[in-house]
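The records we work with from here on pair a chain with its fold. A complete example follows; check for yourself that the lines match position by position.
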Amino acid sequence: MARAWECAGLRWTAGGPVLAWHGGRTSALSWGKRVAFEVVEGGVRTCVGARGHACPARAAVPGRSTGARCEECAWLDRAHSVAADTIADDPRPYHVYLAWFGPGMVKVGITALERGPARLLEQGAVCFTWLGAGPLMAARRAEELLRAALGVPDRVPYAEKRAVRSALPATAAERAAEVADLHGRAVALGGWPQSLEREPFRPVDHAAAFGLPGLPAAVGEVRELVAGGVVSGELVAAAGPDLHLATEAGAVVLDTRLMTGWALGPAVGRGLTVPLREFREPPGVQDGLF
């Protein structure tokens, strides 16, 4: 193989999704573009390190791991993580948000004010609204208040998000309805931290940004990459870390987190020669290289 690049994951920019590569190169993604790569024959997936530092052991990691980190690097990464609630003295202001991924799938979360909607795009939130803004610990207390008082979770599994993307309500108003109801109930709660400034309901819809209108139902998802395996398909949508690809076998979802840690090169052939997990139920029923 003439060239081999190492993927640094999917990123969301003002212009849409891009695949990032170690060394600074990026590949812009647009609907209808062919996404095609081959995992280097004989290659091994290696740990991506932590906090911008390479893994000192270059440890091998499982193909199905979405984190692509060895045990030590995973610990180091979470030891300095706001998401893992291990930092209490971050001086930056934070947003509290409500995010909607499909019927019955609303979560509460926080993100640094300076990041804007980036965190919501990274999670694949189809619709969201801000709830308030203020210091980190005040945002944390508001998050806990919603979980305790309204039963709003702080996580929605990706499998559940993927299962409904092709069968979402047709209009932005319908997609915002559950978020609007929860926002009203949330701001009416007593016990809000005084230092957290409440924000009005202003829904933001990402359906068009993700390419979801008219999205075909997926027949399965890539389970893992393997040495010598090929992935090839036409990009029809992207949400969070997921790429929806039209292939000869039908629409298939590729979680780009499975690409990190592998050496990848241009695909010689077409089609899919990596392990797939076929969906038993039709999605919508709950249960360069480029």
Notes: The first strand starts at residue 5 and ends at 13.
